[in-house]
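Homework help board

Subject: predicted structure for assignment chain

Our instructor gave us this sequence and asked us to write out the predicted structure in token form, then describe one feature. I got the tokens but I'm not sure how to describe them. Can anyone check?
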Amino acid sequence: VQLQASGGGLVQAGGFLRLSCAASGSIFSISAMGWYRRAPGKQRELVAGITDGGRTNYADSVKGRFTISRDNAKNTVYLQMNSLKPEDAAVYSCAALNKLAIPSWGQGTQVTVSS
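My token output:
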């Protein structure tokens, strides 16, 4: 599976961004997709995930502000990020899990939030 992420950038606190992650290759093997982030000096954390059945989960820090969704026709997963905070700044990466729970990673996209 190949993943192409896009949509990062610079935004003011309170603003919004939408990240996209387009999957190609063996997409039939994907069971779930998610967005992770890593801020400087911190460990990578799961931000949001969505299963092939549409079930979603979120980190507590983004609940109510971020929404993960998928467009199966476009093999794309989105992360709508609203009410962004400076602490949301990080490199965001998308990942896809196959049915053996083996991940594939896309390249990261930088999200910068100015206060």
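Reply (TA_rk): Your tokens look well-formed. For the description, you could write something like this. DSSP finds no helices and eleven strands in the chain. That's the kind of observation they're looking for.
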